[in-house]
Fold this protein.
Amino acid sequence: IQTWQLLIPRVLEPSGRAPDAMPVRCSISSQDGRRVCRMFHAMAAVFLAALLLRSPFSFTALRSSARAKPHGLTTMRLGPGGGSDPVNNVSPEMQAEGMKWAQKYEDVLLSGNRLWSSIKKNEKDPRKFYFIGTNGNAGKEIAESVMDALAYIPSPDGTLFLHRKPGSVNPTMQYGMVVTDEILNEKSPVSPVDLFMDDEDKYRELEYEIVKEFDAEEYKGFPMGCVLGEGALLKEKTRELVQKGIVVWLDVDPEHSWAKTQFRSKAGGGIYLPKAGEVRPPVWAIANGWDGDVDDTEGKSEYIEIVEERRKLYDNVKDVSVRTDTPNIASNSYWGAASIVKQVKGYLGYSDAGEGSLEEEVFDAGLEKFLEGARLSKYLKQALSWCEEQGAASMEDIAENVDEFAEAMALKPLEKKRLVKAAASVAVTA
């Protein structure tokens, strides 16, 4: 209080005399200003200290209570005996699932390895594979998966393929593969579309020459595959060459082909898809102006009509076939390779005792996705039991007997409606 009594008169009246009336203007010296600042800082510190001493609030108590609150998530079990792989922070459950997944891949590759070993022993069997089908069928990807399986060599120490570490010494997988559209693009004097529009016969002749070169390739002990352009089989000479090997038809629904080949990612769409990942339409579709407009209803109608005609041609030439637009195979090309390898074994008259379990796993995965799409995942166990009792081995078997399937599951009316809708989509793709 004494400090304020001494300070205030000096601030209001530097001369020390009390003003007779309201002051017009006051001024303070620099020394007095520094004194005022120091006094305010000191008073603020005293006020804060008094507040903390009088209040029950405690920073220490706050921090202690925060530590005591549960965080909700427990730490992963690590350390000796606590986790299977503490180095990579993997729990026993995660490691078991990873091992199961790696073994599934291994089964596909081993199945292809056994098929190729049988083909090599029999000199009469064809040793070249031809993959046919329309655009949008993931032809190159599935062909590579089949070649991977045929060329696979198991590791001498039993290490699974997915567990092989970079830099480790493992057998080399060797195969040859040709994609006629890619080779034609390199050999064509102009762009393939321009060549097709100028002279379709010349385009088909160049396509034939590429297939002829592949057919003339000498056998060197490893599998060889050729992915044909969707219209290559229109030329009779090309069909004759292709039928000397094993012809695999990678089939898709024409509407699926239209959607895959016409889709283009747009700016601001939320998802970026690189241009390299886009599926180009056939050259005849581009020549007709059907490129990048999925909503072109008139073009879609004509496109589907042409593709349906091509499908009849593929069906007459093929040795084995697989639908690649089903959810299971569309999600992973190796499951398509597993189906193709099994069919080729049957076509050539080979048997494999271990093939059944792999096919069952592929079917089970497809059934799980089917029920998930119909929001009926809780009925998976009952569905598997029904399929085993009835001998259903494909999604088409379920689609054909949807009423019996729904009755066995004791589905509610709305659940049955969703099932029928999902089964109808399967029937369309069948």
Remarks:
- The radius of gyration is 37 Å.
- Strands lie at 128-132, 176-179, 224-227, 246-251, 320-323.
- The longest strand covers residues 246-251.
